[in-house]
Amino acid sequence: MNLAKPPxxxxxxxxxxxxxxxxxxxxxxxxHYGRDWTRFAAPAPSGVLLPNTIGEIQAIxxxxxxxxxxxxxxxxxxxxxxxxxxxxxxxxxxLERVRKISPVNQAGRSVTxxxxxxxxxxxxxxxxxxxxxxxxxASSGSSQIGGNIATNAGGIQVxxxxxxxxxxxxxxxxxxTGELLELNQGLIKNNTGLDxxxxxxxxxxxxxxxxxxxxxxxxxxxxxxxMVLGVRSMAALMQVLASCQAQLSILAFEFFSDLALExxxxxxxxxxxxxxxxxxxxxxxxESTSATAETRALEVVEACIAKGWVADAVLSQSESQxxxxxxLREDISETIAQWTPYKNDISTTVQQAPELLRSVxxxxxxxxxxxEVVWYGHIGDGNLHLNILKPDGVSVGDFxxxxxxxxxxxxxxxxxxxxxxxxxxxxxxxxxxxxRFSRTESEIELMRGIKAQFDPDGIFNPxxxxxx
Length: 468
Ligand code: MLT
Ligand code: ZN
Hints:
15 helices; 4 domains; Uridine Diphospho-n-acetylenolpyruvylglucosamine Reductase, domain 2; Uridine Diphospho-n-acetylenolpyruvylglucosamine Reductase, domain 3; binds D-malate; 35% helix; alpha+beta; seven-stranded antiparallel β-sheet; Alpha-Beta Plaits
């Protein structure tokens, strides 16, 4: 690894502020904190900062500003677009020690937590009080709420509960000037001009650093059940979605391809859920709100079988079976990581999803006939993950170059449908060169202007989302 050194002047001041144990420069720490879950670029930060308090964060920003040093805000580093990577001598500003979760507010049905709080711990704190923080995904055991907010994380129940943005009622942020802003203060109603909170949600750390958030909570679903359905075509998948939407109280509608299932079942030595194999599977979670809900779900499935859309189905009969069925979907990402996949995370409106599936399928057959392609995603909200697996013996660089060439065609198809080239993983470094397929030049110029307002010296997360 290329070992950059922090500038002398700021190194002394940071050591005085944080002590040697919270200002790390050893190569193992630089490697560990300098990257997220992507593997397409080498980490090369010059130091790692572990502040304990918001006051220390403000002091760090002040020092960085005086010395022209760049900062990369860093949470659980579970991102998939390189948004938390430090590749160019930046200092990593880790939030992992700023992680207090305040007691849940029952009357207000909310919780306030510092940015480094782990998502699953917030969910547990809410559950103890009979409430739920509903934004959930496979990495919730290690992702931090500040990172979730900075990337407007989505996940497996967006179809029912929406994205992270829908649950943030207050934010504290430190901007590029070191100023602490308190945005919306947990208010449900507040019509007093522009709502800067929403600029920071999904900003990927380019405007400043999120240090605290207030989150709305809700009631947990009653008696959730999961069905896995074997489906013969993507077109049929969309018909099944429409039937389930119309007749069930859906919590999630996910899909995955047979190759995804094959990889997960082989990795964990588990049985496939159905006797035979099908090209695609839908995982449907629904709320069993009454004694008749299960009967209704079975009727929906039978009707889908009669129409030829579904070939076979299994319905969870216990909580542990529900969890096992979920693993078939949730473990895909981690399982295929060993093939250094080229990840696509595209979306369109739900009604246009069949068209998106058709054009993407055609491109895949044309450009990747020799490669393993794993499909999965949150098809119920129009979001498709297309992962191309790197064959053995091909270098990461060559593989990336080949896939990037195809991405231009893929994103043109997405653009045609006015969809998004990054539905939930963000832009970071990985999708930056393709941003123009989803955003106009004038929008990108406006983004530059907004960054300059909050971060006039450009110290926060330089080169992410767009070039300066
Ligand atoms: C998922 O849906 O599993 C996550 O977005 C991660 C991924 O796309 O690999
Ligand atoms: Zn996803």
